[in-house]
Amino acid sequence: MFDGKRIRVRTVNEIVSAMRRTPDIDYLYLAGNHDEAAHAFSDMELPQNFKQFTKKWDTFLYEDVAVSGIEISSDNAVSLYRNVPHKDNYINVVALHGQIGTECGVDRVNLKLLKDRGIDYLALGHIHSYSLEPLDEKGVYCYPGCLEGRGFDECGEKGFMLLTTERGKIVPEFVPFSCRQLHQMPIDITGLAKNAEIAEKMRSVAESFSSDDMVEYILTGCYDPMTDIAVSYLQNLVKGDFFFTKVKNKSRMAIDPDNYKNDISLKGEFIRLVLASDSNDEDKAAIIRIGMEALSGEEIVL
Hints:
Elements: H1 9-21, E1 27-29, H2 35-38, E2 50-52, E3 58-62, E4 65-69, E5 91-97, E6 99-101, E7 108-110, E8 121-125, E9 131-134, E10 140-143, E11 159-166, E12 169-176, E13 182-188, H3 195-205, E14 214-220, E15 222-223, H4 231-238, E16 244-249, E17 252-253, H5 266-275, H6 281-295
Parallel strand pairs: 1-2, 4-5, 5-8, 6-7, 8-10, 13-14, 14-16, 15-17
Antiparallel strand pairs: 3-4, 9-10, 11-12
């Protein structure tokens, strides 16, 4: 729920107030790897509908559903799998926090040891993207992801899981929730010689996105040294298209040093000197472009 060691008091107060305003709803809270450092609920009088899982198995019963969970620690990382709760004649939901795998440990969930344990739905936290997969012949496991993408490593649709019980079975449904989506779009600029052409391609690949979204364009491919790629200019061209835009240049200069290895012209010598320098690729491309303009007698564009 929290993502830092320091949490504003008004943030915690608003969360607790929301729980108090909805006393008919229980809030089952399993702390994640960022939550413990926050100590957000320390020294607070919490409402009775706030149910917190501890470092020992807890189970909460709701009509025909049993929800069990435990906070994984160094003390219980192995032993917790010996006594996974199961309630006969109930739909069994288990909540754990960690990366799935075949190992036991803090922030590790050993799926192998949870198979065939009567779990209908394994609710997982830690991974910030949605996935729903079979656990065994009876149950499934699910990462709902986060409610809002927080960076361009968390792109795509975000939301929560709605679980409905029908005739002794559980039906999971992903519900989109986020105000905006994040998109990371590679733009191959190979063969494009002008910034206007690059901007046009950027807009064409993102035309289906909502103006409320956030977009990061990644320039890829190869470009001619005479092409003056201006990242700041491109960013200004598209900055009004979406809530937030960012442009990164990961393209590379399309010069093969072998083509100039035996070139005895002034141009060949100049290119060899630049390519052998300690400058980064972006600076090398700019130096070569300016040098070619000077050698050709053209106006130099800085």
